[in-house]
Amino acid sequence: MAYRIRISLKTDSEVNRVLRRYEEMKLGFCEKVEGHSFVYVFKDRESMRKGYEILKKTVLGKAH
After folding, report:
1. Distance of alpha carbon 64 from alpha carbon 16, whole angstroms
2. Are 31 and 37 in contact (CB under 8 A)?
3. Residues 60, 48: Cα–Cα separation, whole Å
4. 8 Å CB contact between 51 and 26
5. Structural domains present in the chain
6. Cα(29)–Cα(63) distance, rounded to whole angstroms?
7. What is the pLDDT of residue 28?
8. By C-alpha distance, which of 48, 57, 14, 52 is closest to 33?
C-alpha cells in the first residue's frame, strides 16, 4: 500500500535536500512540487518511517 504525504518546508533548499535524500534511499517518488511544499508517495509503511527520520535529521534537527 502506498502512502501519499504533503510535506511543507521553509525554503526551496530544504525541499531539494530532502527530496535528494529520498531519491538516494529509493523510498518512493515525488508526485508534485509546489513552491516550498511537495507531495511524496512512499512505497510502504517502512519507507514512510525512514522518510520521517530523514526529515527530522535534515530539517527538524537544526538548532533555530
Report:
1. 20
2. no
3. 16
4. no
5. 3-60 (3.30.1370)
6. 29
7. 96
8. 14
Q: Are 22 and 51 within 8 A, CB to CB?
A: yes
The model's pTM is 0.84
Q: Distance of CA 56 to CAs 1, 14, 20, 27, 37, Å?
A: 23, 12, 15, 16, 16
CB atoms within 10 A of CB 45: 10
Amino acid (one-letter) located at 39: V
Q: Which three cell numbers stand for residue 23?
A: 531519491
- The pLDDT averaged over each successive group of 10 residues in the chain (64 residues) is 92 92 96 93 96 88 56
C-alpha cell at 19: 527530496
